[in-house]
Design a protein that fits this description.
This protein has 148 residues and is mainly β. 13% of the residues lie in helices and 33% in strands. The protein is built from 3 helices and 11 strands.
Length: 148
């Protein structure tokens, strides 16, 4: 699918990389279809969610398990059913990233991960019922902990 974007110009997103949020993303509930744009650097855990219907809307995302090794949560039965998940191997998890001017403050939202069933391309942003994670988990702090 050819998609015109503000950030990447005109790009071709494969059909298998188009995902659908039945309820949208928090704050953007009216936008349902996004394309996953993977980083050209295969070692990078970062990707983009580009709105198909809104050229200027794109979210930087990251595989949270690469950054926070002990990230763990239980997906409610409601979402397992809504996304038709039968096996954990069907799932990709992304955290939305905020990239401020001060890159030392780059953060990811661990409180509301994006869950994608990669088999049927259904997706949902899930707000976790826990105080263990925040919407602003600092990536550089987490990486520094791993170096110690």
């Amino acid at each position: 699918m050819l998609v015109k974007t503000t950030h990447f110009g005109e790009i071709n997103i494969k059909d298998e990389d188009i995902i659908e949020f039945s309820e949208g993303i928090v704050g953007f509930e009216d936008i349902h279809r996004y394309g996953i744009i993977r980083n050209q650097n295969s070692d990078s855990p970062f990707s983009w969610l580009q709105a198909v219907e809104k050229s200027e809307l794109a979210f930087a995302v990251v595989d949270p398990f690469v950054i926070k090794k002990d990230y763990d949560f239980v997906l409610s039965d409601e979402y397992v059913k809504a996304l038709d998940i039968n096996d954990p191997s069907q799932v990709n998890v992304y955290a939305i990233v905020v990239v401020p001017d001060d890159l030392t403050k780059i953060s990811m939202n661990l409180k509301a991960p994006v869950i994608v069933n990669k088999d049927n391309r259904k997706a949902a942003q899930v707000i976790l019922d826990t105080d263990e994670y925040t919407v602003r988990h600092y990536i550089m702090d987490e990486l520094q902990k791993q170096e110690v």
